UniProtKB/TrEMBL annotation:
The chain crosses the membrane at residues 79-101, 108-128, 158-182, 202-223, 244-263, 269-290, 302-324, 344-367. It comes from the Bacteria. This is Glycosyltransferase RgtA/B/C/D-like domain-containing protein. The keyword Transmembrane helix applies. The keyword Cytoplasm does not apply. Keywords: Membrane, Transmembrane, Transmembrane helix. It comes from Reyranella aquatilis.
């Protein structure tokens, strides 16, 4: 492994990400939680499910392939599920692909992008329907372009503008990510005297600033909405996501030790810490064998997304400082040393591979869950009470969401409408964030084909 070059590491991780995207597409991961309700609303109403203006651009891009196929007459919900999954996974994967290729010759920047993939994307992407997955990936790609260009390339400037327009209405985290990237873009313009390039970059920076304004307005408007109040109250529970908290612990240990004594980074300490962290992460799917409560819990991906956004901002800021500061803090001086940067890169590459293990394990459990639910709805007629099913058995308890059960059971049925799985709840204690979600879908003419 010591002979691996930064280019080889970047290419290897890119291949890994695309293989994961393919695996997750075939398993229909888009249906997890809110995804099933989104899909049935798309098909029943034949238009974009852009219920939320601040995230509309991401919704349009990821939902367009499904609407196009439905308009062309495709009625196989299994195929449409895979197409929806492919769109949701392909976009962030393409952005991370671009980011990795842009930083592939700089071990320090490559290490930071690997950290983002391992500790931000993979630990929060089981909830792939969440628009933050695309927003975070796009921001990473944008910063990678800014930090690896001389400021004169019109192609790069055009890409940044396109990314800014996508992020303009992508996710509320743009309230702090937007100004960060906009500032970096303006900083990168200092060397450019080409008017078209400066204009494109200026417009891109303006788009990212606009994304922050739209996010701020949205947060104010929805501040007292019951769903968003619940979201705020659970945002501190990110520690429940072991796939996120394990690598975060490793980062904190290395960062604190490195700041206190930069010379520590030159020894074996960081490799030992990150090696242990990678091992713990890789075996995390089986912790429950020895300690029942220690489970990987897919809904915690949703809970950890705010903390992941803050970690992303910190890593992007570190990337910028590493490039911009000619007189950086002592810890950056040490990190820039070729032997230290190389060891860090290899450690984070190993962590990324380890982070893929729980992703694959959970996806396999999800595929089995979908198959069991399909057998239930195809063998029943009328309403099936969710409480009569083994909801709390392993691994069903990992994926159950009461208000989205009608949509999920309709999508996987060969004859939607013949039977639905519904939960005994009043929709007050755990309400859908939108009235259209949680209703019994029609899906007339559709069906899950084998």
């Amino acid at each position: 492994m010591s002979t691996l070059s930064p280019v080889a590491v970047a290419r290897g991780v890119v291949l890994l990400l695309w293989l994961l995207a393919l695996h997750n597409t075939l398993a229909g991961r888009a249906l997890f939680w809110d995804g099933a309700s989104f899909l049935v609303n798309l098909l029943d109403h034949a238009h974009f499910h852009d219920f939320y203006a601040a995230r509309a651009h991401v919704d349009w891009v990821t939902q367009a392939p499904v609407l196009l196929l439905a308009k062309l007459g495709v009625r196989d919900t299994r195929l449409l599920t895979m197409v929806y999954s492919a769109a949701l996974f392909a976009l962030p994967t393409a952005f991370y692909h671009l980011a990795l290729m842009r930083v592939r010759r700089d071990p320090v920047l490559l290490t930071a992008v690997l950290a983002i993939v391992a500790a931000v994307y993979l630990p929060t992407s089981f909830f792939i329907v969440g628009e933050y997955n695309v927003a975070f990936a796009c921001i990473t790609a944008a910063m990678s372009i800014v930090l690896t260009t001389d400021g004169r390339g019109r192609g790069d400037a055009a890409l940044l503008l396109a990314f800014g327009l996508l992020c303009l209405r992508s996710y509320e985290a743009m309230i702090y990510l937007g100004p960060l990237v906009a500032s970096a873009i303006l900083w990168s313009m200092r060397q450019s005297d080409d008017l078209p390039t400066r204009t494109l970059r200026g417009l891109a920076a303006l788009a990212f600033v606009g994304s922050a304004l739209i996010s701020a307005i949205t947060i104010v408007d929805y501040w007292d909405h019951p769903h968003f109040m619940k979201v705020r109250s659970t945002s501190v529970d990110f520690w429940q996501n072991m796939q996120f908290s394990i690598p975060l612990a490793g980062f904190l240990i290395c960062a604190i030790a490195g700041v206190r004594r930069p010379a520590w980074l030159q020894g074996r300490g960081p490799m030992v810490v990150m090696g242990v962290i990678a091992l713990l992460l890789a075996i995390s799917p089986w912790w429950r064998v020895v300690h029942g409560p220690s489970i990987l819990y897919p809904p915690s991906h949703y809970v950890a997304r705010q903390a992941a956004g803050m970690l992303l901002a910190a890593l992007l800021a570190v990337m910028w400082v590493q490039v911009a500061r000619r007189d950086p803090p002592a810890i950056f001086v040490v990190v820039r040393r070729p032997e230290v940067a190389r060891r860090m890169m290899l450690a984070l590459a190993a962590l990324t591979v380890a982070a893929a293990v729980p992703d694959v394990a959970l996806t396999r459990l999800w595929a089995g869950y979908i198959e069991r639910l399909r057998i239930v709805v195809d063998g029943a007629s009328g309403l099936v009470r969710a409480e009569t099913l083994p909801l709390h058995d392993w691994p069903n308890k990992l994926f159950f969401q009461d208000w989205s059960y009608p949509a999920l059971s309709a999508v996987v049925s060969r004859t939607p409408g013949r039977s639905y799985v519904v939960s005994d709840q009043d929709y007050l204690s755990n309400p859908p964030f939108e009235p259209a979600c949680g209703l019994l879908p029609r899906l007339k003419g559709y069906g899950w084909r084998r």
